[in-house]
Amino acid sequence: MRSSTTRPAREPILNLPAAVAFGVLALVAIHAGRLLLSEDTDFQLIIDWAVIPARWSVAFGGVQAEEVINSLKGSVPDEALSPLSMLAQYVLNEGEGRPWTGLTYAFLHGSWAHVLINCVWLAAFGTPIARRCGAWRFFSLAAASALGGAILYTIVNPLQVLPMIGASAAVSGMMAAASWFMFAPADWLVEEGRMTQPHERLREGLADIVRNRQVLIFLGVWFVANYVFAFVQPVGVTDASIAWEAHIGGFLVGLALFPLLDPLPTRPGRISA
């Protein structure tokens, strides 16, 4: 005889907000779609929609195309000089800055490992942001972080002619934004009488963040990891089109911008016992 007790509904394994699910599906679909293109068409797509710092420097920074080409001499191996010089001439020939590539580069990836890792981190850190802030703030933060990453990468590498792609800067911005509240004490209740979910916790003030050991450890590990990846790149995970400078830029933008987008107020300073 079966019990008539109603069983609780099972939670779905992946319970992503619509905005995050859309972002993940878009990244995967775009990368899958590129596999259907010819090599020449895919190359042109990358050139047209990726961030190429030298292109921005010539269009907006007063740098001369000859300066970019001359910078390659002595800075790259002899066997790479000719193809890179040809690439520089091709990219800089039209003189267009293509500022929109500061956003579009985030939709392109160098490998399946690259796109899937970014999707995992986007799901992990984008979910609390989307649940807390809603779709338009979520996408605004992602866009601003991607743009911040592209700008910092260009500032550090103004004469670089290789394309820079990937959603890592946008994901880094989500990580930084989440650090404002994810590590806040669990007893910071939004509503009395129940324990809050991480995304419901009030944002810590800057002074509290500085004293929060978990936040400092998280930030320290993150920055050290990016420093290490600047010199040691795991095979199959990163490639020449990914840059730690973009990660740092996106992270700093997310850290600075989130308090302006957060719909919840800052909690008053902690009360010491």
UniProtKB/TrEMBL annotation:
Domain of life: Bacteria
Subcellular location: Membrane
Transmembrane domains' residue ranges: 12-32, 106-126, 138-156, 162-184, 215-236, 242-261
Occurrences of domain Peptidase S54 rhomboid (ranges): 97-258
Keyword match Coiled coil: no
Keywords, in A-Z order: Hydrolase, Membrane, Protease, Transmembrane, Transmembrane helix
GO biological process terms on file: proteolysis
GO molecular function: serine-type endopeptidase activity
GO cellular component terms listed in the entry, alphabetical order: membrane
Gene3D superfamilies documented for this protein: Rhomboid-like
One Pfam entry name: Rhomboid
Membrane topology: Multi-pass membrane protein
InterPro entries from the UniProt entry: Peptidase_S54_rhomboid_dom (IPR022764), Rhomboid-like_sf (IPR035952), Rhomboid_protease_S54 (IPR050925)
PANTHER family: PRESENILIN-ASSOCIATED RHOMBOID-LIKE PROTEIN, MITOCHONDRIAL, RHOMBOID PROTEASE
Family the entry assigns: Belongs to the peptidase S54 family.
Name the UniProt record assigns to this protein: Rhomboid family intramembrane serine protease
Taxonomic source organism: Microvirga aerophila
